[in-house]
Write a structure and sequence with these properties.
The chain has 360 residues and is α/β, with parallel strands linked by helices. The protein has 11 helices and 14 strands.
């Protein structure tokens, strides 16, 4: 039987149930989910599915990430709610490819782990599956493992196995509506061109879960725990002086009370140059290098290949002598002497992130 897989939280419990109830059935996992966005999230979910299938001892095949074709398939349905018409088209798209894969492998039946997800309509899934039984000759088998406390059992299994528990379906449209309803920043879409790893980002989780797999291969005990912290995202920033934009780099946690401010350098203390407005400070790239023991040629080099966030936070703590300071600290090549116009749009917010702890 071909088992279309959407994510490890659904698939691990679902496949465990199948293996228990149908011990003689050969199961082949098929990860085909071009709806997942961004691509880093797709990679993260696939990584955890690979781990899950390895633990369960079943073969896993990855389908194509044909995201553009998926976008075209759901065009015009962007505003549909969860379990609406867009979801049905999404199921049709994924089931069509899954049915062709089943035929290619010589399988005559298929199912999907989407059936166990409480966020999905089983009626929609069954309707789509039966349509492809009629058109492709591949029998769709709808297992209902939600009933009789199944959803609670699924949650228990996901915690016991320390699976990656995403908090949105996968598609950009569902994510947008969910974050709007929650009045939350859609920080999943923040991904710096510099490839700097942001706290609580998908990229950070991808690193963590990759490291987790390495630890398991080494039989090193660990736990994944959650912790609360103050998160930060830079939306845009620029510095103008003398009518010209000059290269500048805001240290992590740099904020001002409004989006824009202006002023002139008022005084200097220990290499920090203070603006006469908004508690803004400037340091040179030379000072930045000296305090971080790095060797950037100029601010442009810093902008396109910044250090880790931990280095930036350590530098901020050193400069301000406080772990709670969020004043803007701007790195420039040369301290401006003319009037300065600063644009700094940022978001700071309470958040949670996962942390990997190695158990001695």
């Amino acid at each position: 039987m071909l088992v279309h897989i959407c994510c490890s939280v659904d698939s691990h419990f679902f496949i465990e149930k199948l293996q228990h109830e149908y011990p003689d059935e050969k199961l082949v996992g098929f990860f085909y989910d071009p709806n997942i966005h961004p691509y880093s999230e797709y990679r993260l979910r696939l990584l955890d599915v690979m781990r899950s299938c390895k633990k369960l001892g079943i073969e896993l095949i990855e389908g194509p990430y044909d995201y553009e074709n998926w976008i075209n398939a759901v065009r015009g349905l962007e505003k549909e709610p969860e379990k609406g018409a867009r979801c049905e088209v999404c199921f049709d798209k994924r089931f069509e490819v899954s049915a062709h894969k089943a035929l290619e492998l010589g399988e005559r039946s298929m199912t999907t782990t989407l059936l166990v997800s409480p966020k999905k309509s089983q009626e929609q899934l069954i309707r789509s599956g039966e349509a492809f039984h009629t058109s492709h000759g591949v029998e769709f088998i709808a297992f209902d493992y939600r009933k009789n406390g199944g959803t609670n059992d699924q949650s228990r299994v996901s915690k016991e196995e320390q699976l990656y528990r995403q908090d949105y379906c996968g598609c950009i449209y569902g994510l947008t509506m969910q974050r709007d309803q929650q009045h939350r920043l859609m920080d999943e879409m923040f991904s710096p061109l510099s490839n700097q790893i942001l706290p609580a980002s998908i990229e950070e989780r991808l690193e963590l879960y990759t490291k987790r797999m390495e630890l398991e291969e080494q039989n090193t005990p660990y736990r994944i725990v959650k912790e609360r912290f103050l998160n930060y995202r830079l939306v845009r920033a620029s510095v103008k002086s003398g009518g010209c934009v000059i290269p500048s780099y805001p240290l992590f946690y740099s904020t001002i009370s409004r989006t824009t401010t202006e002023g002139k350098i008022d005084f200097e203390i220990n290499g920090q140059f203070y603006l006469n407005r908004e508690e803004v400070r400037f340091i040179t790239c030379e000072t930045f290098n000296a305090l971080t023991h790095l060797d950037y040629a100029n601010v442009k080099a810093l902008m396109f290949s910044p250090p880790s966030i931990d280095i930036e936070i350590a530098l901020r703590s050193h400069l301000t002598q406080s772990p709670f300071n969020t004043s803007a600290i701007m790195v420039v090549d040369v301290i401006p002497t003319a009037k300065i116009n600063l644009i700094l749009e940022t978001k700071t917010y309470d958040d949670t992130k996962e942390k990997l702890i190695i158990i001695d």
